[in-house]
Amino acid sequence: MMRQGASESTASDGKQGVATPVGRGREAPGRARGQLTYDFAIGISIFLLSLTFVFVFVPGMLEPFDGGTQAETPAVNRVADDLTQRRLGNASRPYVLNGTCTREFFILGTGAPAQCAYGGTALYERVGIFERTPINVTISMDGGDASPDEDIVCWHADDDGDGDARFGERNDMGSDCDPSGSADVLLSAGFDPGDSGDKTVSATRVALLKGEDVTVEVVLS
Amino acid sequence: MKLVRNCAGGRDAPGQWRARTATADRGQAHTLEGVVASLVLLSAVVFALEMTAVTPLSASTSSQHIENQQEATARGVLAAGAETGALKRTLLFWNTSSGQFFNVSERGYYTAPPPTDLGAMLNRSFDRNGIAYNVYLRYQNQDGPRSTRNLVYQGRPSDNAVSASWSVALYQNDKLFDHENQPTDVNLSDAPSYFAGNTTDSSVHNVVHVEVVVWRI
Questions:
Q1: Mutation test of the interface with chain A: which of B1, B62, B121, choosing the one with the most A Cβ atoms within 10 A?
Q2: Each residue's pLDDT expressed in tens, for chain B with a length of 217 residues
Q3: What is this structure's pTM?
Q4: Are A202 and A79 spatial neighbours (Cβ–Cβ below 8 Å)?
Q5: Given phi > 0 = left and psi -120 to 50 = alpha, else beta, which region is A112?
Q6: What distance in Å separates residue A99's CA from the closest CA in chain B?
Q7: Does A21 touch chain B (CB under 8 A)?
Q8: Which residue of B has its CA nearest to A142?
């Protein structure tokens, strides 16, 4: 607020209004103009600083509520609803999954069974999204027996002929669940959400599979 | 804003005087204006912040997504429970001598998942994920108005609670279940202490509307 350039004789003129015209007359116009620029610079920089602060601060304040995954959020809900209410079962009995269709759904690369409500050989064709969108579909359950934690459902095929074909949690089945080397099927397909490092959107549904309540989780990236 | 403008235009040497006020005084006003404009901007932000209390439970697009998941999960639990009969078995888990469900708290409702198959499903889907829920049973009274009974009550739902419901028809010859979840030979029509009385002349005893209200805590 101080006008440093003002000469001593006029230092108090702003407040008092009693300055002498003589004192003022001594000031060169050029000098006064320089002083004005200096004050103006302080004023405008204070203003610009706070303006910048507001513009930087307000979007940052709203960002956590902004999502940022505009297209994926409805898509992931559509896929999850579609799978649990129609594609893996029957639309007349929503949330009740058909065992055969659910098992075959995770065997990619072969044609879909005729009685099931999905087609195509790849995962993106079976759920109805673009090929470039990474998707993961996982079905997990908790049988409530050996391990208290949930784990992915594993479908043990009886390919060694000892008559123990069954389905259950992977962590309960141990070596019985070997999806890589045998006809066993792990009910999980698609990209690994832990690996993506990107923003992901997930949708979870609870459904009934062979008398057990299972969780169907769909993740889109 | 021109706080220091001198109104001394009538004095002598007017030319110099005006030049002086037109330059130096304006400079001071610019500084003040800058500060005041900053204050206006900042107070607008503070005012906006004070108006909207943003808490983890505030409604937003992301919490809307979570609410959708909870609602769909509740619907899936009810549908799965109805398919396996777990929902109906829980409704028939009735202690005829005390006139309430087995093993309820003294208030007449469960505060944790009921010790039935439906309770295990609710536990897996909600309790383990730190989600609170109430289960209300709505039914027609014998004398007319609809009544509500709490099956599970964990507190007053928050503003962002969602709900899903399922209707279950109870028949006259449905058997009540004992405390070990085994069917007894007591027909529903022979249990006068049951909460939902007989409302029809047909074989249907009553229709119970099971409502699950879910919210984050």
A1: B62
A2: 444 444 444 444 444 444 444 455 555 667 788 888 889 988 998 888 887 766 656 666 567 888 899 999 999 999 999 999 999 999 999 988 888 899 888 888 999 999 999 999 999 899 888 899 999 999 988 877 888 999 999 999 988 899 999 999 999 989 999 888 888 888 888 888 888 888 888 889 999 999 999 998 8
A3: 0.72
A4: no
A5: beta
A6: 14
A7: yes
A8: B124
Task: Tell me whether residues A47 and B38 touch, CB distance under 8 A.
Answer: yes
Cα A58 from Cα B185, distance rounded (Å): 67
Query: Containing H/E element for A100?
Result: helix A99-105
B200 interfaces chain A, CB cutoff of 8 Å? no
Interatomic CA distance for residues B146 and B125, integer angstroms: 29
- How do residues A86-124 score in pLDDT, each as one tens digit? 999 888 999 999 888 888 898 888 888 888 888 888 999
* Interface check B4 vs A, CB under 8 A: yes
Residues of chain A numbered 143-162 and touching chain B (CB < 8 Å): 144, 150
Q: Is B120 on the interface with A (CB under 8 A)?
A: yes
What pairing do the DSSP bridges indicate for beta strands A201-209 and A93-97?
parallel
What tokens does A203 get? Answer: 């949708």
Give the span between the Cα atoms of B24 and B40, in whole angstroms: 25
Rounded to an integer, what distance in angstroms lies between the CA atom of residue A24 and that of residue B29? 19
- Residue from the list B4, B17, B121 with its beta carbon closest to the beta carbon of A24: B17
Residue B77 sits at the chain A interface (C-beta within 8 Å): yes
B85 touches chain A (CB under 8 A): no
Q: Is the ipTM beyond the 0.90 threshold?
A: no
